[in-house]
Structures are given as structure tokens and as C-alpha cells.
Amino acid sequence: MSGNEDVIKAIVGIEPGSALADVIAGRADIMALTQQTHDGALMPENPGGLSHAERAALALRIAKINDHKAFEEHFETMLEKAGSPDGAVRMADIWFDGGSDPRARALIRHVDLVAHAPKDATRRDIELLQEAGIADADIVRLSELVAFVSYQIRVAVGLALMKGLA
Fold this sequence. Notes:
166 residues; elongated; 69% helix; mainly alpha
């Protein structure tokens, strides 16, 4: 899926001219901003210390945590397009904890915590990322990624429920 396509519409299967498409048209500004955020969070021109492959892998991990197969496929495709480096591919495995790599361990621990129980995250969790050598700007990027992917999945689930009721 290219950055120009609406990921949520494609994943939910919203057909042009459908009742749900009409509802979405009334929120076109929100959907456009959501797509722009998708592209910015996952494929920014300057990825900083989180490569495109790592972003796709961590997004794939979040989709797996949420058991959302369509998003799993979407992020898997993004990971493949990013070249699928071994380290990033392993981060997508929900049974992998980062192994002996302190940076990977910290990233995975944080993603899992915030994806499962965001209210349990504390200042100490940010300090653990810093102690693993993750720059503050990359901590912000990581937080944006986790928050956005979680939001995107929830929007798609809500729209799929609406589609089922239409």
C-alpha cells in the first residue's frame, strides 16, 4: 500500500458509494490527517534513530498484540519493503524480548508495556529507554508510533463494526 492510499479504508474494505463511505466523507479531514500521520510515523523522510524497518516491525508487533490480521499484513508488507533486516524482523516476533541487545530489549519492553497497559507506564520506563542509549528524540518518535498505531487499529475496528451494522 503506498503512502497515497487510505490505509484504514483499504483495511476495513470501505467501498465507494457505500453508506459507510458517506459517513467517512463527512470526516474527510480527519481521515486525511490520519493517513498523513500514518505516513509520517512509519515512513518519515528523516527516521532519526528508529529505522523504517524498526518502525514497521514494532507496528507489526502492536498489530499482533491487538490480534488484527489485516494490519499485521499491512505492516509486514512495509517491513518487507524496508528490506527486512534480521534485527527488525525479530522485533516483530511477540515471543522475542530483545535477546542480549539492550537497545532492542528496551524498545520491545516499552512497546509491549504501552500497547498492553499504557496507564502503567511511568517516568522510570522512559529512564530505562534512556539508559539503553535511546535518544530523547527517538523516545518521542517511539511514543508517537505506539500511540498512532494503537489509534489506527481502534479506528479501523470501530469502522468495521459500523460496516457490520450497515
